[in-house]
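Can't paste images in this forum, so I'm doing it all in text. The chain is below; anyone willing to post the predicted C-alpha cells underneath?
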Amino acid sequence: MNTAPKATMKLFIIATPVIALLSSVSPSLAGTFAKAETETLIYNFSQVPTSISTFTDTQTLALAWKGTVFSEANASAYFDVNFCLEPEYCFPLANNGSQAITLGEGQEYLGLAQSQAAAIGYQFEIAENQEFTFDFISILNLEAQKSQQQESTQAANYIAFYLFEDSSNNLLDFFSLNSWLNYANKHNLFIQKSQGFQLSPSATTNAEENQASVSILLSGLYSHQFSQGQNLTLITYQKSATIVQAPEPSTSVWLLILGALGAALGLKNKSNLSD
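Text version of the structure:
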C-alpha cells in the first residue's frame, strides 16, 4: 500500500498529540530553559501484526535550594491495526510522542525530566519470498538557553527501531538516532542503522547568545525481502530528556539517555504493556 503525500500529512496531523508539538511553557520565564520533544509516525505497513502493545513512562526531578525550578514530562504511544481516515480507507498506524521540559532560575537548583514511549507490533507473518516494508517520519526539536555563566542546560532525543525474528529472538535490523544540544549550540547527531533502513534527514539550527535550537525532520523507509517464512516483532521506541542546573555541573544529559537501548529491548517480552 502506498499512501499519497497529502493523505500522509493528513494522518500525521490527526495522529500527532498536541503536547509533543506545542509547549505552554515559555523560555522567557526562566534563567535556564531546556526542551526536548520527538514525534514519530509509522505507516504503510505491508503486513498487519497479530497483536500490539504500547508503553509510556515519565520521570521528573525538581530540587531548589537557592532559586526556583520546574520539570515536566509527557509521553504518548498509539498503535491501531485498523486506523481509518475514511470509512473505507483503513490501515495499520503507530505513533509515539515524547517531551521533556525543565526551567530554573537562581543560584542553586537542579531540574531533570525524561519521557519514554514505545509501540510494539508482534508476529508480523511474512510468507516465503515476501517483502516486509513500512514508512516512518519523525520530527525532533531541541531547545536550550541560559542567562548566567554558572548555569547549565542540556537537551537530548533518542529514537530506535528494532526488528526481531520471533523463533530465534535474533535482531534482524535496527536503526537509532541520538541528538544532543546545549546552550552553547554544541549539537551532536549520531545515526546508526542496518542495510534495511533508508533515511532522509534534514536539520535546521538557530543560535543566539546563550541560546540555541535544533529541529530535525527525518523521513525513512524500511524494506527487507525474506526468502523463507518468518514471524517478526517490531519495536519502535523513543526517549526525550532535559537537565537544567546551577551551579554548572559536570553531569551530562547523556546520563539520562544511557540505558535507552536496554529499556527498548526489554519491552519485547514485557508483560505489563498496554494492549
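The radius of gyration is 19 Å. Residues 1-26 have pLDDT under 50 and may be disordered.
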